[in-house]
Amino acid sequence: MFESVSEKLDAIFKKLKGRGLLKEEDIEHALKEIRLALLEADVNFRVVKDFVERIKVKAVGKEVLESLTPGQQVIKIVNDELCELLGNSNSRINLSPNPPTVIMMVGLQGSGKTTTSAKLAAFFKKEGRRPMLVAADLQRPAAIDQLITLGKQIDVAVYSSRDTKDPVLVTRDSLQRAKIQANDVLIIDTAGRLHIDETLMGELSNVKYAVSPKEIILVADAMTGQDAVNIAKQFNDQIGIDGVILTKMDGDARGGAALSIRAITEKPIKFIGVGEKIEMLEPFYPDRIASRILGMGDMLSFIEQAQKSFEKKDAELLQKRIIEDSFTFDDLKDQLKKIRSMGPLESVLNMIPGFSKMKNVTVDDREFVRTEAIINSMTLRERANHNILNGSRRKRIALGSGTSVADVNRVIKQYIELKKMLKMFKGKKNIKIPKGFPF
To answer: Does residue 355 register a pLDDT over 50?
Structure first.
């Protein structure tokens, strides 16, 4: 996410920070490079022009050029302007004072609208609400079945009807059902098309006037770059939207859509999809995203992700194991599962300040799979006591896990080193992660 533009900006800022004194022409040159980096990241050219102009006005002032750290001052200005460009603050979905809150999800086919509707329902459920999903996409044959399947996965009610092809009738009936069942959030998955046309907009307008949604959310594919921005503008002009959810952000190294969409539509990005799993929907925080783009990491999101995966009681149990020196392979497997649940390893580690700038660091999620397979091939006795893992046992484990004896030896070595490291938590500092360990 934003890897391309982040690397280019980092190189530009390194040059600025390497100079004790900055002249106006130095900033002019840096701004040209920033302009080029943003255009290559598929940011709208008008947005780039305005963005660079605002930076220039602030960066060539006397207080910047004559400060002790002019390079850092310029970076701060860029950070502030990025936050402004992205929306400054997190924009939540507005909830109705008289439930249910009706949220209408719109977008083209292939944008991930149905999956995102389920992700949003799961998000509200975690907040203690009682969402209901509505299968109002009656154009795509598999859409109803897909939403019902997703609803079962997250244990959320899905309203659907196969007796009509009228989405207005389905959405009206679903609103009445939600009131009867005391569902406080109603998420309507509407139909999409391969492109915007009169038929699509007419259908969406009819649904809009039938149920008066509190919010209309556009679901757009971030990887389509400027197409996503143009689509957002057309939806906003023709039907009116209250916010945007950008999907497939984890696969978008450029970030042009995220950096352009608010400036063009004047509508906030409310969530971003960062993976295929149901829980991989993150609230959009402009300041945190700006920090990631500038290679400063995002510790707040990292902490929040960790808190979702690690329960307090689990942390207390782990602490007890460390104190008693009874950390087993089963405990290791449990911790690896929790780390994996936080999302793709590289995405998680890139939230840590400085990690994105580290060179020659390989991150391989498959290491988790291999390590878990090796632990699963051990007997309960072997998991509890690594000292009994002799040569013949290691061969059996390698055969059972589909790995090599060298892989088994490496995992055992890392486990022993990890146990030594955990002992050091009881009083010593400067703890180092065992070399080659998967996290």
So the answer is: no
DSSP H stretches of helix in 18-103? 24-40, 45-59, 62-65, 70-86
**Do residues 415 and 375 make contact, with C-beta atoms less than 8 angstroms apart?**
no
Q: What pLDDT, on the 0 to 100 scale, is given for residue 255?
A: 75
What is this structure's pTM? 0.68
Quick: pLDDT tens for 117-154.
999 999 999 989 999 999 998 888 788 999 999 999 99
Tokens of 390: 């002799």
Using pLDDT thresholds of 50, 70 and 90, give the confidence band for residue 298: very low
**In the chain, where the domains are located:** 3-86, 101-295, 303-424
Inform me whether the pLDDT recorded for 290 exceeds 50: yes
Residue-by-residue DSSP string for 354-423: TGGG-SS----THHHHHHHHHHHTS-HHHHH-GGG--HHHHHHHHHHHTS-HHHHHHHHHHHHHHHHHHH
CATH number of 3-86: 1.20.1050.10, 3.30.1490.20, 3.40.47.10, 1.20.120.140?
Answer: 1.20.120.140
What is the C-alpha separation between 284 and 3, in angstroms, rounded?
17
pLDDT given for residue 428 in this prediction: 46
Q: Percentage of residues in the chain with pLDDT exceeding 90?
A: 32
Question: What is the side-by-side strand order in the sheet with 185-190?
Answer: 157-159, 131-136, 185-190, 101-106, 215-221, 243-247, 269-273, 281-283
- The pLDDT assigned to 361 comes to 47
Domains 3-86 and 101-295 share a fold: no
Per-residue buried b or exposed e for 386-423, using 16+ beta carbons within 10 Å of the residue's own CB:
beebeeebbebbbeebebeeebbebbbebbebbbebbe
Select the more confidently predicted residue: 360 or 72.
72
What the block records as the tokens of 100 is 């249910």
Q: What homologous superfamily does CATH list for 303-424?
A: Signal recognition particle, SRP54 subunit, M-domain (1.10.260.30)
Residue identified by tokens 């484990």 is 397
- Look up the CATH architecture of domain 101-295: 3-Layer(aba) Sandwich (3.40)
